[in-house]
Automatic annotation (TrEMBL):
Cofactors that this protein relies on: Mg(2+); Mn(2+)
GO CC terms: cytoplasm
Top EC class for this record: ligase
The UniProt record lists the keyword Metal-binding: yes
Keywords: ATP-binding, Cell shape, Cell wall biogenesis/degradation, Cytoplasm, Ligase, Magnesium, Manganese, Metal-binding, Nucleotide-binding, Peptidoglycan synthesis
Primary gene name: ddl
Pathway per the UniProt entry: Cell wall biogenesis; peptidoglycan biosynthesis
Protein name: D-alanine--D-alanine ligase
Chemical reaction(s) catalysed: 2 D-alanine + ATP = D-alanyl-D-alanine + ADP + phosphate + H(+)
Enzyme Commission numbers on file: 6.3.2.4
Record's subcellular location: Cytoplasm
InterPro entries associated with the record: ATP-grasp, ATP_grasp_subdomain_1, D-Ala_lig_Van_CS, D_ala_D_ala, Dala_Dala_lig_C, Dala_Dala_lig_N, PreATP-grasp_dom_sf
Length: 328
């Protein structure tokens, strides 16, 4: 029996562009023999299904249904492909929970917490083998002391909005005198900011997913960029970053990373596929947690499709297993 799936894309932030590309990859790789897929666009203006041959049809948000040619269509589950708000911060998950409708991502609580970098770090601290950069969290509604921040933290620093996943509003500060300008820039994006000590080392990212009832850690990717850090441009502009999957690391490093990544997934109570960014300092030494993305990009060049290919799995099979695990 075919399942009727809503593929939800768009969003209300600058990341909607990436969400649309992610949804295109997912749609191309969802098995038409197993799923009837309706791509639904969520924007500030409304939630619409756009059939190729007719006008936009608005979704009935009372029960998340569509009426097509006089027939009401209800969904077995939702594949959420919205990066940023409201897809990645728990808002949509809470809505679907109230409708008792299954979806492919982490639940509302995990989604909301992991959008806040400071809170996430507080929860994962204490996992064996996991290191977290020293940091300070500041709020634009509460007075903060820049001189005290400079005393407490060693330069260079990373200054980043506490919520959000695509490095927008983020700065690397090499001189303490430039801290205030970086804080002002980050406050343009968010009311909370995280200021972290810079960790020197090699940058990696790894997907973690539960498939067939078992937590699976995908092959890791090394990210090298000529830029100061892996920002929005480096993530989404071809040629700015060099990505190697699987990463050239020793077998024991790979095993250690997999163990830590699985522990993060379990401790944060994740569901579906997530992506963990981290740094290895020294000669494949300490594992430093950077952040977790609970709805990682699925564009043709994104890390998760690269990592799925590196484990000799077709995206079609990957998405089928993902839906079976999360939606049933």
């Amino acid at each position: 029996m075919k399942k009727t799936i809503a593929l939800l894309t768009g969003g209300t932030t600058g990341e909607w562009v990436v969400s649309v590309k992610s949804a295109a990859t997912i749609a191309q790789n969802l098995d038409a023999d197993k799923f009837d897929v309706y791509k639904i666009m969520l924007t500030q203006q409304g939630w619409f299904y756009e059939p190729a041959d007719s006008v936009k049809i608005e979704v009935d948000r009372n029960d998340f249904s569509l009426t097509l040619n006089g027939k009401k269509i209800k969904f077995d589950g939702v594949f959420i492909a919205i990066h940023g708000s409201p897809g990645e911060d728990g808002k949509l998950q809470g809505y679907f929970d109230m409708l008792n409708l299954s979806y492919t991502t982490c639940d509302a609580l995990t989604s909301a917490i992991t959008m806040n970098k400071g809170y996430t770090k507080a929860i994962v601290q204490g996992i064996p083998g996991l290191h977290v950069a020293k940091s300070a969290q500041i709020f634009n509604s509460i007075p903060y002391n820049t001189d005290q921040l400079k005393k407490d933290l060693k330069v260079p620093y990373f200054v980043k909005p506490n919520n959000g996943g695509s490095s927008i509003g983020m700065s690397k500060v090499n001189h303490a005198d430039d801290l205030q300008a970086a804080i002002d820039k980050a406050f343009n994006e968010d009311s909370q900011i995280l200021i972290e000590e810079f960790i020197s080392g090699r940058e990696f990212t790894v997907g973690v997913v539960k498939l067939d009832g078992k937590v699976t850690v995908l092959p890791i990717t090394e990210v090298e960029t000529a830029k100061e850090f892996f920002d929005f441009e480096a993530k989404y502009t071809p040629g700015v970053a060099r990505e190697t999957t699987p990463a050239p690391v020793r077998a024991e490093t790979r095993e250690r990373v997999a163990k830590i990544a699985e522990a993060v997934y379990v401790k944060l109570n994740c569901r579906g596929v997530v992506r963990i960014d981290f740094i290895l300092s020294g000669d494949e030494g300490d594992f430093h947690f950077i952040e977790i993305n609970t709805i990682p990009g699925q564009t043709a060049t994104s890390f998760i499709p690269q990592q799925v290919a590196a484990m000799d799995m077709k995206l079609n099979d990957f998405y089928t297993k993902l839906i079976r695990e999360t939606i049933g």
